[in-house]
Amino acid sequence: MSAQIWPPIPHEQLIKEEEDSLAAELEWLLESLQEALASLKSGLEECLALLKPDEPGTTLALSTHRSETIKGFVTRDIQIRLSSLPPPRSQPSYPLRITSPLPLPQLSALTTLINQSLDIIDISAWTGDPQNGSFISGQLRLLSDTITEAKAIMTGGEDVVGGKWWEDDFNGDETVCQTPLLARPST
Predict the structure, then answer these.
(1) What three-state secondary structure class fits 93?
(2) 3-state secondary structure of 60
(3) What is the DSSP letter of 8?
(4) Computed from CA positions of residues 79, 80, 83, 86, in that sequence, does the dihedral angle turn out positive or negative?
(5) Which residues 6+ apart lie within 8 Å of 130 measured at CB?
(6) pTM for this structure?
(7) Cis peptide bond N-terminal to 7, omega within 30
């Protein structure tokens, strides 16, 4: 399908009008992209707030790589409930007492990547040239790579940060977990 302009205009003027139209469309796309980036930034800030240790109500589900069924739950105050291990009498779960911070490499790397994504969005909107198409294109590629890496860390596996956690030596304080033993653990 083709369109013709009536009355006909010279070819040079037609090319100039096409370029002006494409420039106006690119400007509109870049302006609407800024709104989408603001929305993405808001969502990433919510994710970051959930990962902060001062958020008391966060519940993490435990599952395995082979089966996505939920095996148990862990909360920030470290109450563990596992279906394979019944809780002690008169308690809904096993309480763990953590005396010093227990860093998880996956969560640390995820927090770093979310912060990097927020920085990329800020650079795209404020520091750089938000009306430069090639600059924004590069920033979007970098943002995509960073979010893909964060998604890989959340999915887990052996090829991500902290992936083979069972092979790593614990370099922290041996007295991090001061959980009292049950009087009769076999009952």
Answers:
(1) coil
(2) strand
(3) -
(4) negative
(5) 30, 34, 124, 136
(6) 0.64
(7) yes
